[in-house]
Every structure is written in structure tokens, then in C-alpha cells.
Amino acid sequence: MSRKHLTLILRLALVVPMLLAFVVVPVAANSEGGSPTTTTLTSSDIHASGVSNHLRLKKTADRDIVPAGWVIHYTIRVTNDTGIAASVTVTDVLPGGVKLVSAGENGTAINGRVYWKLSVPAGATRFLHVSVRPYTTMRGTIVNKAIATWGDFTVSATKRVTVVAP
User: Fold this and answer.
1) Which alpha helices (H) appear in the chain, and where do they start and end?
2) Which of 20, 93, 98, 147 has its CA 20 to 30 A from that of 135?
3) Tens digit of each residue's pLDDT, the chain (166 residues)
4) Is the overall model pTM greater than 0.85, yes or no?
């Protein structure tokens, strides 16, 4: 099996694990100098080793410290390095002590969460925006969390912002 074919098989196993039950990987010749041995990796072995589907998520805020009552603008960055288009569901879990001001890109707010369903082409990045206002009585650190799900793969990102007296 050529290296090109092996690369293609491994990429398919990482990108579409539900379609492949296993991957056969040629390994170096055995210690007696005979023919190469093979190792079979299941999709659970691939996930257990820390290899991901290369869907990346980053969460930023326009400021790290904000007076209570001021608006915080968050940006969620979803990057698809899988090699194929991905239908991604992104959920932004709003922290306690804040009120939703806006959810861009047609985000839907339900019970303290904002949801987006989007298609992210291979190699593309999508940006989502959400703005919140900490209550005027809020003090301390708030943690805003975003979660992206593609098939059975989930990745999350958080951003901490400190709320101070106005």
C-alpha cells in the first residue's frame, strides 16, 4: 500500500469515523526482518489517542474587565480543518448574572442559551456574535462558554470576563 493511499485512509478514518469500522496501518518490518506487520486501529482507538476531527472553536470578548451594566461583545470563531464540509451546531451558554442583548447571525435564544446551525465548508472559518449586559448588581468573574457539535464530535471554548462596580 502506498503512502498516498495510507494517508487517504487515515484522513477518511478521522473525518468520517462512523463510516469506517477500522483502519489498517502498515508498520515497519518485524524484528526478524520479514514482511511488514500491520496494526488495526478502531475508531475508538483514534479518538482515545487525542486525534480530533480538526473542528476548532475560539471564544473572545471585546474586553477582559467591564463595569456592571456595560455591554460585553463576544465573538465565537468556528474553524473547519476536516477536509469536508461540516454541519455544525453551536451553543453559547450564557452565564448567570447577565441579560442577552443580541445574538447575531440568526442565533436563536432559548432558556439562557443561544443556538446556531451552520454549514462550515472545508478549510473555512465562521464568526458568530453574541452580546450580553451584566446586571448592575453583578460583581466578580463571569464565564461564558461556547460548544460546537459536529456528528459525535464536540469541542468547547470559554472566555472569562471580570465585572466591577461602575
Assistant:
1) 3-15, 43-48
2) 147
3) 555 444 444 454 444 443 333 333 343 444 445 554 444 433 333 333 233 458 999 999 999 999 999 999 999 999 999 889 999 999 999 999 999 999 999 999 999 999 999 999 999 999 999 999 999 999 999 999 999 999 989 999 999 999 999 9
4) no
